[in-house]
Amino acid sequence: MLLTTTYSSFSQIITYITQNADEQFSYTGEVSLIVNYITYLVGLTSAPSLFKFKKLFLLAALCYFFNYALYLLELENIGGLIISIIGAIVGGYGASILWVSQGGYMMRLFKTNKIE
Prior knowledge:
This protein is mainly α.
């Protein structure tokens, strides 16, 4: 849950920073946020078919790390916009994997412990 919460906060902070940075395109934050959520929605359609929860948690964390690392590059031209979009795609897919995996893992725990 902490990974999800920090990722959402990070996405909002990055959007704010890119909207207010003079040296970047003024719409980079909005574009990356939109791409992130579209990828998240599309990723939710494929994520339910995945069942190895530990590997999925690791994959989601790696996606988040990759997304964070791309923002550290701080490119100021069209390359920065492209890097932001790539990061948003990877981050959105990682978010969809994480959310579905958390729910699946919780359901498995409930069934294992006979909690209804």
